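Hi, here's the filled form for the chain we discussed.

Project: internal
Contact: R.S.
Residues: 290
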Amino acid sequence: MTAKVLFAGCRDLPEGTGDEHGAAKVLTEAGTEVRWAVWDDPQVPFADADLVVLRATWDYLERHEEFLAWCESVPCLRNSAAVVRWNTDKRYLLDLAAAGVPVVPTDVVVPGAAVPWPDGEFVVKPAVGAGSRGARRFGPGERMRATAHVRALHDDGRAALVQPYQADVDTNGETALVFVGGVYSHAFTKAAMLTGPEGDSAGSAGAEKLTAADPEPEQLAAAEETLDAATGLLGMTRGDLLYARVDVVTGHDGAPLLLELELTEPYLGFAHAEGAAASRFASAVRAQLG
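And the returned structure, exactly as it came back:
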């Protein structure tokens, strides 16, 4: 019987960004039925699919609980609903820091709490957010503006994260290391997106400046450590994760720091990798089919 795989998108991106088309082609040629579907389309029988792969479900931010409930209704979801619930709230960074992962210093500010402002430049972002949507960069003299942004996030029902800005991003960007089936595949660099307090961006892959990258050994080691810690916290193996993207930046001391661990629906940058990367992803999908 032909295995059926659904790639889940959203109404604005019902077939994603096009980045997965190469992997879909490989899967189809290998005898796997692949099609795209909008995650909140009630006419789609997601429960009947052999595998549902979250790819471009980027409209869930305003409907977080609804999205989590949908994830839990899909029997064969990758990554799993338990992973999604943990990973879509950036407070997971505190869990990873407690597990010993070098993380960009992060404070969570809930309504009514005092804000621990960092020295120097800093970033305020929502705890539930994708890309750089809702994230803004402030200087040390802009705390009133930053306070207003924190208040706006609270008024929208979201906790805020406050992090010191890592200045190396302006020169070298972020390095995104992509893993499929728990194994390193490829990397790409994302140029700085936040240029100041008005530097809030849409956060879509198409708006970012991306280039292929060859990560430093220290960056790869940090990414490996992050995945080991995350899967330990989640009670699973790295092979249980169909995909992962580990975004690292260089800290003030020159060492890599984790900025984000993307386990839910990250852009995987196959367009910025050699052709075999899409084939590796297709093979990982087939492995998840058992």
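Let me know if anything looks off before we file it.
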